[in-house]
Amino acid sequence: MSYLFECGTCWKSFGGGWRAREQHLRSTGHRAPAFECDTCARHFGSETARWQHMNDLNHFSHECSICDETWPTEEQQIDHEHHEHNFCGECSRTFQNYNNLKMHLNSRIHRGQNVQCPFCQNNFSTATGLTYHLETGSCSSAANVNRDVLYKFVRSKDPGGMMTKNLIGWTGSSQYEANDRSYNWYREGYECYLCHRLFSNLHSLNQHLNSPTHQESLYHCPKPACRKEFKTLAAIINHLESEACGCTRFENVQKSIQNVISSNRMLEF
Question: Domain 1-59: which topology?
Answer without folding.
Answer: Double Stranded RNA Binding Domain (3.30.160)
